[in-house]
Amino acid sequence: MAQALERYPVEPSPSVKYVLYTHYAYRDADDFAAWSSGTPPNDLVGVQYLAEHLKGLRELLTSPAYEGILVMFYAPGFADCLDGIARGKQRGELLAQNNRIRFAAEVGQSVAALLRSYPQLPMRVRVVTPIDLYDIFGRMNWATAQNLRWWFIGKSQAIRYDTPKIVEAIVRLRLLGSGVPVFRLDYDVLFRGDENKNLPDLGLFKTVASCLRAYRLRMDEPSMATFLLSAAYDTRALTPPESSTSLAAWRGAFATRIFPALPVVPQEIGRVGMEGYTWERYAETVFDSTLARRFYGLAGNDLVTEGVTGIGKIGAHPIASIISGAMLCLSEGAILDLPPFSNFTLNVSWIDDHLKYCLHRELRHLTTITLKVEPLLSDAKLDPIMVQKARAEITDLPSYVLGNYLPTVLWGAVVDAWITANPLLKYRPEYLPTSQQPVWHAIPRHGRSEGVLAAALQTALEEGSFITAERLQLRETLIRVGLQRITEVRRQWADLTASDSETFASIWAKGTCASFFPQLSARCHGIAHQDISLKDEIRETVHLNYHLHDDFLTLVDDALEYIEWTLNWPKIMQVVRSVEQGTVKTDMSWKPQGRG
User: Fold this and answer.
1) Which of 138, 413, 414, 548 allows an S-S link to 314, with CB 3.0 to 4.6 Å?
2) What pLDDT does 163 receive?
3) Going by C-beta distance under 8 Å and a sequence separation of 6 or more, which residues neighbour residue 555?
4) Would you say residue 533 lies in a domain?
5) pLDDT per residue over 390-427, tens digit each?
6) Which residues contact 146 (CB under 8 A, 6 or more apart)?
C-alpha cells in the first residue's frame, strides 16, 4: 500500500478563498463562423484575446492568502444541448451531431491547453461548456428533463445575456457548505484588453480583497441570514462636476446605459458615414450632460439622486442598486430560496441583480436591521469598491437603442412594478428630500408584499402550489399593473427633451421614430399606436405597438412560469447536488486530466 501511495501521490486541492464566475462571450459568434470555415481553435480571436490576459489572471488567482478559482462558461450550443438531453440523446451523439456544441467543446479544450503554460492555472481556471452539463442533467428522469429548456432558457432560440446565470447557480449549489463565496464578473470587467491585460493581477486584487472582506463581515453578522452584495461601476469620472460633461465620463458609470438620453439631431445624423463620421463620433458630439442627469434622476451637478425621479422611479436606482457584473455575490440562503430568472424569454434589464434583490426583499428574506457601524456592511451596493467595464464601440446606434435597448429597459421597468409597489423602497433615505424620509421609514417591511408578483409567489411558496385559478387571476393583474407602468414610462421618456432637440427615449415614447429613421423596421417605431396620445392611459394590450404587444404577453407568461420554476427549484437543486463531489469541473476538489 505504501508503495502504491508513493507511486500515485494524491495532489492536494489548491487553497481557495473565493470563486470568480464569468460568462465568456468575446467575439463568440465571429469565432464560430471562423471555426466553421476551418480556423483552428487556437487561432480564433476570442481565444487569443483571452490568452493575452492569462499572466495577470495567474497573479490574481495565486495571490498569497487570497487564492481563488475562475469558472468561465462558454455558452455556444447551450440551448441545443438542453434540447438534446430532453430528447434522450447521449453525450457522444450531441457532440457528433451539433456543430455549436462541438465548437464550444473544442474551444474549451484549446483554452485548457493554453493554461498549461502557466503554473497553477490549470487547477485554477475551469472552462465549462454546454457538454460539461450533460454529466449533471443527462441522468435526469425523462419527464423532468423535458422542462429544462423552459426553466433554463424559456421560449427563446437565442442565448440572452442573462441565460448563463443558470450555470452560475450550479456553481453556487455545488459549493454549499464550503464557506467559499462566488463573485460574478462580466468578462469585459475581468478582461479589458489594453486597459488591463498588462497590469499586475489585472488590476483587480484590491477589488477582490475588499469584496471578500464584505462577504466575511456579513457571514459574521448573525442577523444577516440572506444577503446580496456587489461592487459599483466607476463613477469617479463624474466628479468633480466640471469633468462630467463628456460621454466618456458617463458611459461606464452606471449599469443602465446612457444611450436613451442622447439627443436626436438630424443635421448630425446626416453626417454619419461621411468622411469617417461614425455613430461613435455622433454620440460624443451631441451628448448633453443635463439630459443625462434627468434620465438618471440626478440633482444639479452632484452625484446624488433628486428625489423619486428618473430611471430610479421606474426601474433600478442608478447609484443604490446592485450590479450583476460587478462582483455580485449571493449568500447560501439566497441561492437556496430562489432560482435565477433564467426562464424569461426576452432580454429584461436588471433581471438578475436589482429585480432579484427586490424580490428577496419583498419575500422578507433580507434583514430589516440597519447596520451602519462598518462601511462595507451598510448597504448591498458597496459604493467604495469600483470596477471598470470595457464598453464596446457604438456601431448602429438607432437600431441598437430603438430596436433593442429601450424595449429591454421597458420590460425591466414592468417587472419592477410587479415586484416593488412603492418606488421609495429602492432609495436610500439619505437620497430623499427631508419631507419623504419619514415616509420611507414608515413603509411596511413585514408580512404580505404589496408587489403583485411577489405576493403571489409568497402565497405559492406557503401553499406549495400554484393552481390554474390563481394563475388566471394573477395574469389579469400582471397585465393591468404592467400597462400602468408602461404608461408611466412613456410619459417620463416623452418629457426627456431639450429646448432644441428630442432624445432617442422621447421619439420612441412618442412614436415618432420613423420621422428620423425611416429605414428602421416597425418594431423600432414606438411604444403605442399612433392614435394613443400621451394623455391617454394605455389600458389594453392592443394599444401597444404590435411587436411590443406580443412581447408584453410573453413577459407576463414568463412571470407566471417563474412561480412554477421556483416551486420546482428544490428538485433541480437535488439533481445538481447529487453528483459526486470532485467530478464536476466547478468543484474545489476537481482536477484536470493527467493530474492527481
Assistant:
1) 413
2) 63
3) 344, 345, 346, 348, 411, 414, 415, 482
4) no
5) 888 888 999 999 999 999 999 999 999 999 999 999 99
6) 86
- pTM assigned to the model: 0.93
Q: How far is CA 321 from the centre of its chain?
A: 12
Distance CA 445, CA 454 (A): 13
Q: How far apart are CA 46 and CA 30, in angstroms?
A: 9
Residue 488 belongs to a domain: no
CA of residue 458 relative to chain centroid, distance: 24
Q: What are phi and psi of 197, to 5 degrees?
A: -65, -25
Average pLDDT over residues 164-170: 85
d(CA 160, CA 342): 9
**How far is the C-alpha of 185 from the C-alpha of 324, rounded, in Å?**
7
Q: For 549, phi and psi rounded to 5 degrees? A: -55, -50
Q: What is the average pLDDT across 77-87?
A: 87
Cell numbers found for residue 371: 447596520
Alpha-helix runs per DSSP H in 315-405:
332-337, 354-362, 375-378, 397-400
Which residue do the cell numbers 467575439 mark? Answer: 27
Terminus-to-terminus CA distance in the chain, angstroms?
17
C-alpha cell at 261: 438620453
Q: E strands of 409-509, at which residues?
A: 502-503
CA distance 121 to 123: 5
Q: What are 515's three cell numbers?
A: 420621422
∠ CA 101-102-107, nearest 5°, is 100
423-450: burial string, b at 16+ Cβ within 10 Å, e else: bbbbbeeebbeeeeeeebeeeeeeeebe
Assess contact for 232 and 207: CB atoms under 8 A: no
Number of domains observed in the structure of the chain: 1
C-alpha closest to that of 125 among 12, 11, 21, 205: 21
Cα separation, 397 vs 259, whole angstroms: 8
Q: Are 503 and 397 in contact (CB under 8 A)?
A: no
Amino acid at 316: A
Dihedral sign of CA atoms 423, 427, 432, 438 in order: positive
Return the C-alpha cell found at 430: 439619505
Range of the domain at 351: 17-234+321-394
Neighbours of 542 (CB within 10 A): 10
Within 10 angstroms of residue 502's Cβ, the number of other Cβ atoms is: 22
Is 382 domain-assigned? Answer: yes
Q: Is residue 496 within 8 Å of residue 510, measured between CB atoms?
A: no
Contact 74, 129 (CB under 8 A): yes
Question: Is residue 588 in a domain?
Answer: no
Answer whether 478's CB lies under 8 Å from 533's CB. no
The reported pLDDT for the residue numbered 190 is: 97
Burial class (CB in 10 A: 0-12, 13-18, 19+), 336: middle
Give the whole-angstrom CA distance, residue 307 versus residue 111: 49
